[in-house]
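User: quick one - fold this with NAI bound?
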Amino acid sequence: MKIGVIGGGAWGTALAQVAARGGAPVTLWARESEVVGAINDAHENTRFLAGVALSQSIRATSALADLADCDALLVVVPAQHVRAVLTETPVGKTPLVLCAKGIEAGTRLLVGEVARALHPAAPIAVLSGPTFAHEVAAGLPTAVTLACADPAIGATLADRLAGPNFRPYASDDVIGAEIGGAVKNVLAIACGVVEGAGLGQNARAALIARGFAEMTRFGVARGAQIETLSGLSGLGDLVLTCSSTASRNFSLGLGLGQGKRAADLLSDRLTVAEGAFTAPVLREAAAEAGVDMPVVEAVCALLDGAEVQAVIGALLARPLTRE
Ligand SMILES: NC(=O)C1=CN([C@@H]2O[C@H](COP(=O)(O)OP(=O)(O)OC[C@H]3O[C@@H](n4cnc5c(N)ncnc54)[C@H](O)[C@@H]3O)[C@@H](O)[C@H]2O)C=CC1
Ligand SMILES: O=C(CO)COP(=O)(O)O
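Assistant: Sure. Structure tokens for the protein plus NAI:
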């Protein structure tokens, strides 16, 4: 089974490395010509995943047409670019595995829904979970949710990607797997704020638990299964990204909590902090679904430039309620 990877950022490169285990051929499409050159010439993605010696069986390309002979395509460009890139990709009936975490601005569609609308004949799967790219690329033990409505296709993909230190767990809940990854990025920003503002470990734990309640309310309203939200792609990823400065979303929140301006923190980023794009779309989607998401609203306010203490004060001043 020949795997194609669309997206040469840190995560696309790490997943290409996973798929290339044992010398299996992998084609990796990258947008930047210097990334394509560095991978083909030096077997390293010096821009997005420096220091990792990549398998020689990964061949990088700047031409989406080169993915035409692949048996499955992993889609790993940031969520806001999935539509543009998939529009240009030869897909047909090839299974698409969505690995980006976010909701499309404007349409409020999850990336799997974008893919399904563009390529209705392609089976859709979602790979999501607690997966820092640098750890996966280093071969450290990692488990993910691999969700696909068709169990046979899901099992084939899981078998192809699994390795001694990379364990996909099967699910048929594509929506649930997507919602966990999209929402946790916004909550990770909130946890970074707590750290940056020096609010303590109690506050962070409370935020993880109350944030998870928001994720669950929203997920259930959109048809997700609670078991998925409390699994690897939901709670698992929430715990990871709410606890570590290795998370770009947590780091963004850390800066906000220290009083830096969102515009300044975002302006010179080379890498993506998806939560900053997802937050306003999630706020709209939650309002549309009639779901209360106060932590998400607080993150939106901070991204819009509100003052940290005022936002935290307003969160804590909400009327007392039942858990
Ligand atoms: N880095 C990680 O540890 C993980 C990332 N993800 C998700 O994977 C997705 C990709 O993130 P990373 O690989 O980390 O990216 P990255 O932050 O390492 O690199 C940025 C990526 O964005 C791409 N890009 C920028 N502008 C673009 C455009 N106009 N059109 C298409 N692509 C464009 C760049 O080519 C590059 O591939 C995100 O949704 C992220 O949430 C998921 C799990 C782990
Ligand atoms: O999704 C991730 C880990 O599962 C990566 O998190 P960040 O995008 O916040 O770095």
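One thing worth noting: Residues 77 and 84 are 10 Å apart (CA to CA).
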